[in-house]
Amino acid sequence: MIKKLLLGTLCIAQFFLISAHELNTNPKKDNGTGYFQNVPKTVIIKTKKFKVRIDKQPNGNYLYQSWGANTKITAKPSMIISNGELIPDGSGGNYYFEFNNNGTLYQVWRNYLTASAKKAPYTLVVIDGNGETLVRQDAQIVKN
């Protein structure tokens, strides 16, 4: 009877060791947004004055391209900024993309959680080198 109990205990312990090892051998790679909403690879938004396209690059950074609001996206962009990053904002799913162009910050905020159901899903914010906000415009999704 004791042999059977020891054998059963040994089998259970071995099962848990194997299970724990399998769970840790392939940890899921994450860009820091695992508990946030899914971030699309390409986002195209439109404000009153601009169209903005953000693309995830193979190196994990983001590319910012912008045009005038009435210009087609197939035209040459008026501005291109590379090496942008995705920055999570809290634990509710909000995040923003940030791009630095010679000291001027371009941020595109994703607004999942807002106080108003009428709030636009994105906001474009441009901040100069002195911390002054030059542009703050709500944006609608053209393509997500």
Describe, in plain words, how this protein is organized in 3D.
With 144 residues, this protein is of the alpha+beta class. Helices cover 17% and strands 42% of the residues. It has one helix at residues 2-25, and strands at 42-46, 50-56, 62-68, 79-88, 95-101, 104-110, 122-127, 133-143.
- Tell me about the biggest sheet? 8 strands, antiparallel, barrel
Listing every helix as H and every strand as E from the N terminus to the C terminus, the arrangement reads HEEEEEEEE
Kindly name the structural category.
Answer: alpha+beta
Q: Termini separation (Å)?
A: 64 Å
Put simply, the count of helices is: 1
Q: What percent of the residues sit in helical stretches (DSSP H or I)?
A: 10-25%
Number of strands: 8
What are the segments in which pLDDT stays under 50 over at least 5 consecutive residues? 24-36
Strand order in space, largest sheet: 1-2-3-4-5-6-7-8
Oligomer: single chain
Apparent shape:
elongated
Mean of pLDDT: 81
- Radius of gyration using CA atoms only: 23 Å
Indicate the proportion of strand residues: 35-45%
